[in-house]
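Quick one: structure tokens for this chain, please?
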Amino acid sequence: MSSNKQNYFQRRNKPKGPRINYRITSSEVQVIDSSGENLGILNVDEAINIAKNEDLDLIEIAPNAKPPVCKVMDIGKFKYDQQKKANKAKKKQKKIELKEIKLRPVTDVHDYSFKIKNAQKFIVKGDKVKFTIKFKGRELQHPQLGHELMKKIQEDMKVIGKVELHPKFDGKQMIMVIQPL
């Protein structure tokens, strides 16, 4: 009884990947042989026999086509090629990061130019840059200093980037995001 319960609660996994050989549900399929030649529409059993004669598998490549397209090849080689294609596509993706540069309304000229150079490097590399101006104490009574600094940053960055999020106050800090052109 306990083994019966165990079987009842087991998860039924669908087989991953394409259907091969006797798992192909269609009665007729379009067959492409191992050399890439189109053999036409054949009965599934005939196609499987052709694959078995070559010591290969019949793999359903396009299951949604009418009739489904199957290819005679080794399943291991097919899975390897699919994995290689997936890895190649993943390599080509560009992951955009958000880099943050923190300033104060009283940041000195040299520090400002150093941070702007770093921001320009980030933007040229393809990342977004978030500028944060932190206000402390009585600096909060002079938000115009933060707005002037943000305008200066926009002016310095307009050649290589554009403003994604315009300057706004968020508590005791002012935030602006610049993205690459």
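The longest strand covers residues 161-170.
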